Amino acid sequence: MRPNPLKALVVNPLAGVFIALVAIFVISALLSPYFMTGYNLSVVTRTLAFVGLVTIGQASLMILGEIDLSLGVIGGLCGVAAGMLMVNLGLSPWIALPLALLLGAACGLLNGVLVSLLRLHSLVLTIGTAGIFGGANLVLTRGVAITNIPKEIQVFGRGDLFGIPMPFVIMIVVLAIVSFIAAKTPFGRYLYAIGNNPAAARMLGIKVDRIRILVFVFAGVMAALAGLLMVARLGTAQPSIGETWVLAPIAAAVIGGVTTTGGVGTPLGATFGAAIIGIIENIIVLFGVSPYWQGIVSGVIVVLAISFDAVSRRYLRSDAA
Amino acid sequence: MAFLETHGLGRDFPGVSALNDVDLSIELGRVHVLAGENGAGKSTLVKLLTGTDRPSRGSISIDGKDPAEDPSLFRNIAYVPQELTLFPHLSVAENLFLPYDRTGHGRNIVNRRRLESEAATVLARFGITASPAAFVRTISVPDQQLLQIARASTNKNMKVLILDEPTSSLTSTEVDRVFQVISGFRDSEHAIIFISHKMDEVFSIGDDCTVLRNGEKVEAGHLADTDVNGLIRAMSGETIHLGDTFRPEVVPPGDGDAILTVRGLSGPHFENVDFDLKRGEILGFAGLVGAGRSEVMQTIFGYIKATAGAVEMEGKPWTLGDTAASIRNGMIYLSEERKQHGILPLMSVRDNIGISLYDQTASVFGISARKERACVADIIKAYDIKTSSMGKQIMFLSGGNQQKALIGRAMAQQPRVLIFDEPTKGIDVRTKAEIYRIMKGLAEQGVGIILVSSEMEELRKCATRIVTMHSGKVTGSFDAAGTSNETLVGAIFGKENTPDAA
Predict the structure, then answer these.
(1) Which of A38, A203, A257, B184 has its CA 20 to 30 A from that of B434?
(2) Which residues cross the membrane (chain A) (predicted)?
(3) Mean pLDDT of chain A
């Protein structure tokens, strides 16, 4: 029996997605002379940060076996709420921003409590709550952006730290903390246990409902954080913030080795997945693909990436089972 | 020439040869027992015979032809897996006749009334009590298991029926029904391949036998030419005395004190249950499937909510309804449903065991990989868990090794009360004896052991006392050594007995 070199990728899906990320990075650099410029890389990483933060939250839920379709609108709602607190009520950003994060936590709490108490499927429930949160956004703003956001917070969205875009730095810090929790703490391992087999987890004395609610709260906070950083970057609180944060993070997590059925994958892998999608979208723009075609092209590439992953995994698993 | 034959059949997986050079010969009109320990290669062989996997070496012949050239030959082989694979949200009749084109129920339009009336005759033949229109999720587990066999037999091309542990959730009356069905197939010139770890069943129904060990055929012949000990020796390669009893003998300090006192406990499917568990004993729970034994145990453990009653542990009131508190206070329940309630399938053996060791392995700096590896290695060694590495996903371990991993994980928390619910379901003879020995050892150290089992022989061998239950009520409590089988069976079927002084 020859050792199968591809098998290492299945045993460690993280290595697989990392290699894919490096490959896409190198190909992009070869295809376009503009890709490797400092300006473009800063655009790519800055843009990645927002979807990346939501992806970290969504991936944590998916590892647990849940999914939250309201994360995008939570981001939008918290963004405009922060804007209104600062502009309309004249609150200091140092009060307004934590309050907006708290609002994200409250939205996540609502999702988590309803899913746990009513034993609802989170996919269905969060379609409903997404309607509520998105509707609240429109009631508050009437669809009009809030301008005159205090300049002092713009450093979080537009600023750099040691030449690295601030939102990206924040995402990396969050990712490091979450990765440590997921891999090295009992709480993190319980996430995987619940995602594998919730009944067995309860038999082990794991407080399944409490952990599920906490992770929904965490995901809500991540969405809110992404929303705030986006307000800081734009300098206005747009009601449309978060519209693209629903499906891309789910696709990113799946590309990164997190399954929709729960129990496997890592936040790091999911973030790699988000980076792959981010680079693909960037290279499409650099190539000057017509904006009307961008959705189709990036969709096709994502479907290809996921199919390749699924097919190779099935082929190798039939060999290993 | 036999109807189904294999020659030099082999199947390799990366790093292991699961099956090697197996010759098998199945004749119509006979019941062929396929025997072997967990992990001996029975499932691999069945997968090759049913065409769900392809051999690495060797050949299969069905009716003298090669199915590698004509896969439709595999339609002659019907397979009933050990696990229930029914569609819970479809009706009994629909489950019975799916896929419709195979059973002659039309390709485009299905006549529900005709489906159900035809189902009624099949159900009667198999002694299934459920109505054809009932959803499978609502019918009893024995009915589901029988339905699964009935479903396989609706395949009109079937010549060979493979039954993998068909009786694991059945009681003796239902087993008789299965045996009648098997005899009927045998007499109508079908071949049956029968896989079971229950020796009495093997010898009462089997004609021929093939024994696998470590992926190789070690013996084949007529069952009449061997006996239970001979068969066990062939399967395990050594002599195992299952005739031994495993009742605790050494008396731990404080012997006879009640560890657990249950009074007037009621919950779903059971009511007003009283019993005492004493230090140093193994307390058996006997009853039919559905008598409420598992529900009683899960309620005491806190997995199900109690509606009435109280429990005391070592004289102190016991918190019900909180599994985390139960484990913290020294009780562990090992479920009958290893897959549903036990293993974390996609996680490694190390993660599965390590998840109960965080008290020892985790600090403010996180879980120490080094400590975890060391602790898990100790448990793997102590409980003789066979796995190529501790990083292997637990779902790839055999049932017996999964069970030993779960026991090892439970023991790492040093429980004072350990509840085993059907701990040897689907587990081979050698591992059974190991599990009995573990239970005995624990009881002798003073751990209170409750053993829920549907196998009377197992209870008689291991239990000090046996509590019987019938449809949710305790019908007696007996000293295991001094009570006849008739009395126990009577109590299981609901005959009221005056509980003895125990």
Answers:
(1) A203
(2) 12-31, 43-63, 69-87, 94-114, 120-140, 161-183, 211-232, 244-264
(3) 88
